[in-house]
Amino acid sequence: MKLELQNVVKRFGAHTVIDRVSLEVDGVHCLALIGPSGGGKSTLLRIVAGLEYPTSGSLALNGRPIEYHDDALLRHRRSIGTVFQAFNLFPHLTALRNITLPLEKVHGRTAAEARELAEATLGRFQLLNHAHKRPAELSGGQRQRVAIARAIAIKPQVVLLDEPTSALDPEMTAEVLELIEEIKREGRDLLLVTHEMGFARRLADRVALLSEGRIAEFGPPDQVFGAPQSEITQTFLRRVLRY
Ligand SMILES: Nc1ncnc2c1ncn2[C@@H]1O[C@H](COP(=O)(O)OP(=O)(O)OP(=O)(O)O)[C@@H](O)[C@H]1O
Ligand SMILES: [Mg+2]
Predict the structure, then answer these.
(1) Tens of pLDDT along 130-186?
(2) Mean pLDDT of 213-233
(3) Segments making up each domain of the chain, as ranges
(4) Residue 35 in 3-state DSSP?
(5) How far apart are CA 113 and CA 119, in angstroms?
(6) Would the CB of 40 count as within 6 Å of ligand 1?
(7) Is pLDDT above 70 for 86?
(8) Cα(42) to centroid of ligand 1, in Å?
(9) How many CB atoms lie within 10 A of CB 229?
(10) C-alpha 112 to ligand 1 mean position (Å)
(11) Could you identify the atom of ligand 1 that is nearest to the CA of residue 85?
């Protein structure tokens, strides 16, 4: 994946949430975004996803500028997979229908094509037994794996994940992290917001720490976690690694 951010600013009213962020990665298969709560990680991810407009600045993904107007944005959104923290499945639909519905309504697949894609994806993640259950009948980990299956059913090159395990207990976290690792192994690129530092260190080839809307640290994981340069990073890591 190639991702270029140039002087990206996002303000909500008088509040500057992303403050002139510039970043360029190329040939990276997993970029992890870490940092303290409120630092702007989700906002930045949503801007890359095309779900939020930057106030100013420019972004390009895989050499193509992200154009922040309706038609182009719709195409951009459709081309990537996104997974959020939790509760992003339709509660009244089965796991299978949660996957087939957007394939039909958003991606223009026929019902038969959608079903085939959805079943293949669920099958690959050992979720076929749960295809006809509604979210409330699934464990948290199963629910999040269905959400990930939905995001990648369209076979996107780039998948954006925002704290996909933060609502899960440790055992469920493990099964979801394994799945994310598998997605990476099959050649998809990840932009991952996570508080799982060990996972970020193992999976990412670049890590950026976002604090108060600015990138306080950027580099390969061994450098960011092993020899952080900025005091913000040192304080953050001390705090999150204490437990
Ligand atoms: N729609 C919005 N309107 C106003 N302020 C917002 C909006 N979305 C986010 N913010 C503010 O922007 C700042 C950054 O929020 P963001 O959700 O990006 O942080 P984060 O790094 O993802 O935090 P966390 O780790 O807790 O998820 C916060 O101060 C938040 O209150
Ligand atoms: Mg967030």
Answers:
(1) 999 999 999 988 998 999 999 999 999 999 999 999 888 888 899 889 999 999 999
(2) 97
(3) 28-39+65-80+156-243, 89-155
(4) coil
(5) 10
(6) yes
(7) no
(8) 7
(9) 13
(10) 40
(11) 27
